[in-house]
Amino acid sequence: MNAVVVDGLTHRFGEVTALDDVSFEVAESEIFGLIGPDGAGKTTLMRLLAGLLTPNGGQIELGGVDVLADPEAAKQKLGYLSQVFSLYGDLTIGENLDFVVEMFQEDRAVAAEAKQRLLEMTDLARFVDRQAGRLSGGMKQKLGLSCALIHRPQVLLLDEPTTGVDPLSRRDFWRLLADLPGQGVTIVLSSPYMDEAARCDRLALIDHGRLLATGTADELAARVKGTMLEVVSRDLPAVSAALAGAAELLGETTFGDALHVRWDGPDAEAAVLARLQAAGVAVQEVIEIEAGLEDAFVELVSTGGAS
Fold first, then answer.
1. Are 80 and 147 in contact, with CB atoms under 8 Å apart?
2. Distances (CA, A) of 154 to 88, 179, 188
3. What is the pLDDT of residues 105-163, one digit of tens each?
4. 173-190 per-position pLDDT tens digit
5. 31: how many CB neighbours lie within 10 A of its CB?
6. Contacts 24+ apart (CB under 8 A), 91-94
7. How far is residue 295's CA from residue 132's CA, in Å, rounded to a whole number?
8. Domain limits of the chain?
9. Architecture, CATH, for domain 225-290
10. Global pTM?
11. Rounded to 10 degrees, what is the CA torsion of 261, 264, 270, 273?
12. Rounded CA gap, 189 and 26, in Å?
């Protein structure tokens, strides 16, 4: 059974189409990731799923409930964590959790048990009396996650939850997320980090409001055309210039001190090395590699999903 169904979702801000006929499904207990460039429409999609915006067209179902027809029932089934910390900074961790319990009119005994479990799960129990405004970025996100989970939602929406959080806190946050599907929680999240996206069961790539591709990280990477080469050189602009104009060149992307080159031709390594040597460009290495999710991201966005 699907926990989330999005069908033909369209949303406009004036003359700007933020989402254009987007459709996808998310299975129960799945971690589903939304990736795309800045301004692609990911946050708009999240806000539509959360019932914070009304679409110009299309349908949304969460846990079998039509979000547009019965938004209040849908809200009982979801938890939402936005990009910006939106809890009360002058309330303590415990008081923020209690406030959410009151808002959802949860049974007090059940909520007290859930509160203690979440505090222990997030390692916030020893800070329960600390004001939220005095928490670190990682602790604020853990509190936000706890507040989003305390009413036991079926679907958890996370809009770039680890942006601006230090690497250790990101790791801890993902450790918490990994346990949730086993508890029956379906997660839909957006992330600018490809290493995080690769942890999702499936992904949807969005750009300019259009859904370009869906699939696992491996399935998206498999859509990269040609042979992927990694060229390491101290002069990447010279490498790029030497390869420019080659009929076999499908594309290139800089990754640190290396250039990822997509080549459509036989003996790709030898062909590229020969071309660089002929141009007098010194390289440390030219090797064939497997395309990764970031390679797929670059290609699918540049081709509008045509790969």
1. no
2. 25, 14, 11
3. 777 788 788 888 889 888 899 999 999 999 988 888 889 888 898 888 999 999 998 88
4. 888 889 899 999 999 999
5. 22
6. 91/131, 91/132, 92/128, 92/129, 92/130, 92/131, 92/132, 93/119, 93/124, 93/127, 93/128, 93/129, 93/130, 93/132, 93/135, 93/143, 94/119, 94/128, 94/129
7. 39
8. 2-216, 225-290
9. 2-Layer Sandwich (3.30)
10. 0.89
11. -40
12. 11
- Angle at which helix 137-149 crosses helix 167-179, to 10 degrees, equals 20
Q: 262 has which bridge partners?
A: 228, 251
Place of tokens 């067209």: 57
Place of tokens 């490809």: 194
CATH topology of domain 2-216: Rossmann fold (3.40.50)
Amino acid letter, residue 16: V
CB 137 within 8 A of CB 169: yes
Helix/strand/coil for 115: helix
Nearest Cα neighbor of 139 from 149, 150, 128 is 128
Amino acid at site 35: I
Q: How far is CA 282 from the centre of its chain?
A: 38
Query: How long a stretch of residues is the chain?
Result: 307
Amino acid code (one letter) for 271: A
> Which residue do the tokens 């939220």 mark?
132
Contact 35, 187 (CB under 8 A): no
